């Protein structure tokens, strides 16, 4: 790294990134033929422009700390915009899904639609002046102990089509990992014959609407909230839906006596032990939904909140799939033994043909593919090693936002804690332009 800045380059300040090296051997942006362009970032680098990244950036800005947000896609909230189906609604009431410092606009229904939530995130970015660096995929992030900074290498695509790739290395004292628990689709492994199946096979991340499958026989693999809702959407739009149920699960009503089941749980947990709250939830659930085991949905012995607390597995909040299961309009089937050319063979030995198979098998973190850090994040599953509420901060200025297994409420918790922690350091380190200049010289 050069020991002096280039002629005509502006002096760094505490709010704007500063180019330290323009790259060489190719173009000025650090083309593939030479050294990557190096940019010093005075505030934290945030990786990911979903709800977690946006919330963290907004909280930082409210504390007077600038940040640089890197997003591999061409827009904010790309997962919500491009990897959710059209008729999706939030599972929880809007009061539990608001990001810090900004409520939903007046007139928003109790359970916002997918499009309403996306509009809320767009407005959130606009109100707080958050402008992510788009089409910037982080290739590698590692802490350089010699200079006390994170080196974040990005492969940029200025046109969004991969045709104008360039490399940039950002340097910052802080790195916020906000790519989330659901960065990439998770596909089942080791299922025999998947490559021989000749029908349509897709993940729920590619599913848009049920009427595309009208008149088709469709198998949904997975019985979580996504599997239940996709099965319901298929059924409501003229498809014949079957749903694979491999494990025991808790299905709860979305509301109990007109009150959000989730909200009721949060309230009761303030006063009662978790086992007692589970007992109350299951008592009311049986009154409202009946015995789900009769319909192929056996319940675990451990209560839904205890399972959520210990494993992060969320109970299903029913929005209408269960009545369709009771009536036989959604067929419950056992686990898959193997795929055939035209369908599947189940573990009970019977075979059935399907026009399409939709995998509601969840998502996974992509952190191990780019973050070179071994203490905060596990390289096995890409989530923090410590459980909530101790999962948000690691050593050397690295933070995790939105890896709590507690949805958007966990996101808000992380954003506020991270912003407060960085703001305290920012006040001390960047109290004056002279201090900023000295920090810049450490990288030189």
Automatic annotation (TrEMBL):
Q: Which GO terms describe its biological process?
A: auxin biosynthetic process
**Annotated segments matching region Disordered:** 1-36
Q: Is Transport there in the keyword field?
A: no
**Enzyme class, first EC level, given as a word:** oxidoreductase
The UniProt catalytic activity note for this protein reads: indole-3-pyruvate + NADPH + O2 + H(+) = (indol-3-yl)acetate + CO2 + NADP(+) + H2O
Pfam family, any one = FMO-like
Keywords assigned: FAD, Flavoprotein, Monooxygenase, NADP, Oxidoreductase, Pyruvate
Q: Which InterPro entries match?
A: Auxin_biosynth/cation_transpt, FAD/NAD-bd_sf, Flavin_mOase-like
What superkingdom does the record give? Eukaryota
Q: What's the cofactor?
A: FAD
Residue ranges annotated as compositionally biased, kind Gly residues, are 22-34
Q: What is its EC number?
A: 1.-.-.-
Q: Which GO terms describe its molecular function?
A: flavin adenine dinucleotide binding; indole-3-pyruvate monooxygenase activity; monooxygenase activity; N,N-dimethylaniline monooxygenase activity; NADP binding
| Compositional bias of kind Basic and acidic residues | 1-17
Family from the record: Belongs to the FMO family.
Q: What is this protein's record name? A: Flavin-containing monooxygenase
